[in-house]
Design a protein that fits this description.
alpha+beta; 322 residues; 6-stranded mixed beta sheet; Ferric Hydroxamate Uptake Protein, Chain A, domain 1; Chitobiase, domain 2; globular; 19 strands
Length: 322
C-alpha cells in the first residue's frame, strides 16, 4: 500500500498544505473552470467566466464557484456539486485536476491560478493508474498560455513520412495563435519545450518522450498503445480491457509527461493514412473534454479514450476487432 500523503497527492485530492486563502495579487483574467466525470465523458458543470477575487488558488477558485465538501479538516476534496469520490461499480473513483491540460504536481491550495488558465476537474476510475500526467482536452492549451503562467516554445517534430500531416498540425497551431517551429524528428528539444511529434508510431516509438505510451497507462497515462511494429492500434478501457484495431488505418492524438519536463504530444497512427486521420482531428472541437482520442477510418470514427463498450459498439466496423 502506498503511503497516505503521496497517494493523495498523486490522486489530485488537493491537500491543503497552504490553506485556501487568497493572496494580495491581482485577480487572474480569462480563466475557465470545467467539472466533468468519467474521463470527460459527462460534463457536470462548465463555468467559462468564474467568480474571481484577488490572487486565486485552484482550491479557492473551486470553493468560490461550486458547492464543495472536504474531509480530514478540509485537507482534501470529498465532493464537488454533490458528487463524491469513493467506489463505483467495484472500482475506485476520485477527483483529479488539470491546469492547461497538465496534472498539477501539488495540492490545489498550493497551485496559483494564472491569466488564461483552463482548470479542469474530473472524477474517474483510477483502477489502471492514478497518474494521467497530461491530457489533450484543453487544447489549445498548454500551447497558448503555457504551464504555471509561463508560455513555452512549441516545436512540431515530424518524421520523414509525416508529410501533409506535419503541415496540417503546424497550420492549425498557428491559426490558434501559437507560434510553432518545425523540425525533423530526433533533432532534439528541451525540458521546457512543448513538442508535438507527428508521424507513424514505428517512427516515433524510439523518442524518449513518446516511448512510455507503448508501456500502457501506468507509464504514460494514455489508454492506448500499438502492437508489434506499430501496425495495429490497441484501445484500452479504464479497466484495462483491450480492443485491437487489426488491419485498420487508425490514428492517435495523445499527450504524456515525464517528471517535471514539458508535456510531449503525439499525432500518430498505424501508417501514413492513420497519421493523416489524427492530424485532421487536431483541433479544439475534436479534442474538447477528451483525455486522448483515437481516430479510425473516417472523421466519424473518433473514439474518446479510455475506450468504453458503448463507443466500440457505436462503430460497426470496430465490431469483432478485439
Amino acid at each position: 500500500m502506498k503511503p497516505l500523503v503521496p497517494a493523495l497527492l498523486g490522486l489530485g485530492l488537493v491537500l491543503a498544505l497552504a490553506g485556501c486563502g487568497l493572496g494580495a495579487g491581482p485577480a487572474p483574467t480569462a480563466v475557465s473552470v470545467l467539472v466533468t466525470r468519467e474521463f470527460g465523458a459527462r460534463v457536470v458543470r462548465a463555468v467559462p467566466r468564474p467568480k474571481v477575487s484577488g490572487q486565486e488558488t485552484v482550491m479557492s477558485l473551486l470553493l468560490r464557484n461550486f458547492p464543495v465538501t472536504t474531509r480530514y479538516g478540509g485537507g482534501f476534496v470529498e465532493s464537488i456539486a454533490g458528487l463524491s469520490g469513493g467506489h463505483e461499480g467495484g472500482h475506485p473513483v476520485d477527483w483529479f485536476y488539470y491546469v492547461n491540460g497538465v496534472q498539477a504536481p501539488k495540492g490545489a491550495a498550493s497551485t496559483d491560478v494564472h491569466p488564461g488558465d483552463h482548470i479542469w476537474w474530473d472524477r474517474h476510475d483510477w483502477s489502471e493508474t492514478d497518474e494521467v500526467p497530461a491530457v489533450v482536452g484543453s487544447y489549445p492549451e498548454p500551447f497558448l498560455n503555457g504551464i504555471e503562467g509561463k508560455r513555452l516554445p512549441v516545436q512540431v517534430a515530424c518524421s520523414s513520412e509525416a508529410g501533409a500531416a506535419c503541415r496540417e498540425v503546424t497550420r492549425r497551431l498557428q491559426a490558434d495563435g501559437v507560434p510553432a517551429a518545425v523540425s525533423a524528428l530526433g533533432s532534439g528539444g528541451g525540458s521546457e519545450i512543448l513538442r508535438v511529434l507527428v508521424g507513424p508510431w514505428r517512427q516515433l516509438s524510439a523518442d524518449s518522450g513518446a516511448e512510455p505510451i507503448q508501456r500502457g497507462p501506468r507509464a504514460s497515462g494514455v489508454y492506448a498503445k500499438f502492437s508489434g511494429n506499430g501496425s495495429d492500434l490497441v484501445l484500452l478501457g479504464a479497466d484495462g480491457q483491450q480492443t485491437s484495431l487489426k488491419g485498420l488505418d487508425a490514428g492517435l492524438v495523445a499527450a504524456t509527461r515525464a517528471s517535471e519536463q514539458a508535456p510531449t504530444w503525439v499525432v500518430t497512427g498505424t501508417n501514413r493514412a492513420g497519421v493523416q486521420l489524427a492530424a485532421a482531428d487536431f483541433d479544439a472541437e475534436s479534442l474538447d473534454d477528451h483525455f486522448a482520442v483515437a481516430v479510425v477510418q473516417s472523421a466519424a470514427g473518433l473514439v474518446p479514450l479510455p475506450a468504453t463498450a458503448a463507443s466500440i459498439e457505436s462503430m460497426p466496423y470496430l465490431k469483432g476487432t478485439g
